Fold this sequence. Notes:
The chain contains 1 helix and 32 strands. Helix content is about 5%, strand content about 50%. The strands form 5 sheets. A 10-stranded antiparallel sheet has the order 9-8-7-6-10-15-11-12-13-14, with no helix packed on it. The chain has an 8-stranded antiparallel sheet with strand order 4-3-2-1-5-21-16-17, with helices on one face. By secondary structure, the chain is mostly beta strands. It folds into 3 domains: about 10-75 and about 200-250, no CATH class; about 85-190, Roll (SH3 type barrels), CATH 2.30.30; about 255-385, NPCBM/NEW2 domain (Jelly Rolls). The chain is globular and about 65 Å long. The protein starts with 9 loop residues before the first helix and ends with a strand. A hairpin with a 4-residue loop joins strand 12 and strand 13 (about 165-170). The protein has one helix at about 10-25; strands at about 30-35, 40-50, 50-55, 60-65, 70-75, 85-90, 95-100, 110-115, 120-125, 125-130, 145-150, 155-160, 165-170, 175-180, 185-190, 200-205, 210-215, 215-220, 225, 240, 245-250, 255, 265, 280, 290-295, 300-305, 310-315, 325-335, 335-345, 350-355, 360-365, 375-385.
Amino acid sequence: MCIQCFSFPRVLLMSCLLLIGSAARADSNEYLLIRQHLQIQRITLAEINEQSLVHLENDRWMTVDLDQCIALLATDAKPRSYGGGVLILTDGQRFPGQPVVQPTHPDDEFSWSHQWLGQIVVSLQSIEAVLFGPTLRAPEPGDTDVLLLTNGDRFEGFLVSLGDPVVIEIETESGEELVDIPRANVEAVRMVAHRTSPSGRRVWFRDGTVMDVTSLLIGDDGLLRLTSRWHSAGTKPAEIERAQFDAMLLDPQRLLPLATLSPDRIEGPKTRFIIPEPVKLQPDASLQLSPLEFNGPIVVRYLLPPDCTRFAAQAMIPDDARHWADFELIIRGNDEVLFSQRMNAIHPRADINIPLQGSELTIELTEGANGPIQDRLILNLPMLLIEPR
Length: 389
């Protein structure tokens, strides 16, 4: 049955849907809806069509225009754990799978096998990294392409082909040299590439796939139907179990996860010899909304891109630090205090949603009553809103 066609009353249909969804995965219909001004609302999701989503609110089914929403995130979304390879494109799309050896392919193309998309072909220029094995991270980027071998050796140069063998051009004392390496000996590749912007709505799946879609429907039959540029023209939409759907970013241009920004400056008292950077607790979090942990006393300054108009996060003291933690959390925009709250065992949490002006965001943890002992803070879902004027 399609989303638009119902053969019995809607309320009964939705109730059945919730029962089916809960059997497929605990809390499979529970999502966080991020609205226009970064307000976060916990919802029970029923369906999504091209214009709106339907959810349960106070025992009533409510319809929300997708233009009024920014993102949707499953409450039980978890960091990715890749058991095999993964292809990462310059626009941030990710495809778990394995390489496909096709000797007839041109050197500037690469074939990849995905579990439910099948075989996809991309240009080398669109690749940021390829993890061929269970390694968790690609090599750090540099001024040249980087190739990491399974024995730990590293080559830097210009990647000519990702076929079998993999071919990389390196500089030697006698000049440029082509090196052929069996693909079985290659652990990961990092390409020198320019970041590109997402196209369409971005979707995160439970298997680790991150892809842009041209259409996405969630119906009453427990299936998610989508189309994308990876589907051949004229083919029917891919059908995926709804339980595999983790998150959707409706407008990639408006939501900026704080975890994707590197601090411009990190400051602390003179008596503190080592000032740790904020830690990304879930680097592969859906929507890229990794929690950030700050270890005070500290001042962290971020330079903001143009048109950042709002900052939101859920601040909390970690459970294992609540006995001693006692500090003031101060958030500034261009050195103007926008938010301030004392954080301790009595007040271990705070919701933040504040307007911004200017080009700098500062997060400060001051030293409190117990001195700098366990003054740790986690910002959950830290995000910035971009609204072009």
